[in-house]
Amino acid sequence: MSDKVVLGGGLSGLIYAYYHKDHIIISPDIGGKMDESGKDFFSNIIFAHYNNATIRLLNDIGIPYSRATRPIVYIVKEKADNMAGWKRVVLDKSMVSIDVKLKIIRKKMRDPSFEPLDLNLSTDDYYIDTLDFSISDLVRRLSDKIMNEERWHDQTAIRITKEKVVTSDTSFPYSRLISTIPADIFWKIHELELDCELKSGWTTFALSDRPTSELRNIQFNIAYDATDSACTRISHNNKKDNDVFLYEFAGKLDEHQVESNLPLDAKLIQWYSEPRGVIFTNSWNVPPPNTIFVGRFAQWKHSIKLGDVIESALFDCDVRTIFNRQLNFTKNFFDLDKLRMDTEYRQESTRSIMLLLYPELGEILNAINYKAHRKRRDVNEEHVKEEIVDSFKYLLNLMIIWGIDSQELFELFSAKSKIVEDRYREKVKDET
Are residues 117 and 230 in the same domain? Predict the structure, then answer.
C-alpha cells in the first residue's frame, strides 16, 4: 500500500489523486458535496474560471467544454420618480460606486465595520470569463477512476500524527500527506495545535424557479444585491434548459426564513446552510511537516479557485529539482571535482560568491523604501522577488561549493530548526 495519502474525497482530493497515481485517498465518501446527493444542487454554485490549468484537466479526462462569458450586475436602491420612496434598480459595473461594493461585502460578512483588502468581489470587470462544462460529470469520472484503481479507502480519520493517519479501523503510515479537508477539522484531530482561530461564517443557499422582479428581463449570471434585503447574490448559469436560480443569504436561515426572502411568486426548490460559506483568510494556517494543504478550505484562503487546485496538483517540484538546475549552471564556472578535493579552492570560490552575494542583498534593500529620509516611491513587488531569487541562487552556489546536497540541506535544516524552535519554546516558558 502507498504511504502517500490524500485526506478527503471531494473535488480537490480527486484532482490531486488523479495526477498523482502513487497516492491513495482516505475519505468516508467520494465526491464530497458533489456526490450523487448534492450534484444537482452544487452544480448551480460552481463557476469554473477560464484558465489553462482547468482546460488541461478537462482535456486529460475527456470532458467537453466551451468558453462562456458570465455577465455581472448589481441591485441597488434609488429614489423613486415621485420622490415618495425608494425603488430597486439594476446597474452594471460602470455605474457602481465603491460604497456599493463595500456595502455588499459588509453584508456578506455580516459586519458593518469590516474593512476588505480589495473590492473586486468575483472580479474587477463586468464579467467572468469561464468554462462551461458538467461539474457533476467531472466528479463522476474522477471518482470512477480512483475507485477502479482501488485507491479509495472508505475510512474516517479520527487522529493524525506526524507519521500516520488513524481511523476507527486501522492506521495509514505516510511519508507525504495531502490534506483537502477543512483546516478547522484537520487541526481538531491533529496531534499538534494551531495557535489561532480559524474564523468562518454561515451562508444559506437556496434554489428557486425565478429571480427577483428587477432581473426578469435582464441577461445576467451573477447579480450582487446591495439593498437591505437578506440576499447577497443571485446566480444563474444561462443554459437554455435551466430555469434554476441560486440565491445566497448571509447567515444561517431556516426554511421559513428562506421562503420569506424569495419573491412572492417564486418556488423554493431546495435549500442548504453552509457553516463555512464565508471564510476569513488566515495566513497562520501553515501545514505541519510532510503535509501539504490543497483547496480553499484546507488552505483557509478565500481566494482559492478550481484552477489553483489543479495547478497545485500539476506542480511537482522539490528541492532536488532546484539544486540540480543550479548545479548544471554552476559547473560552467567551477571545477566540481576540485571543489571536493581542494579546501583552498573552496575558500577562494566562497570568497568569489560572497563578493557577488553582498551587492545582490543590497539590491533587495534598494528595491524597497528602506531610507527614512528619502521620498517614498511605489514598490515593484516583482522586482523585489527577482532580487531575492538572485540572492538565493548565490546561496545555492555556496551550498554546492561546500558539498551540501538537497538531502543534507533537509537534514541540516531540520536539525537547526529543532534547535531554534526548542530555544523559542524555552524562552516563552521562562517568560510565562
Answer: yes
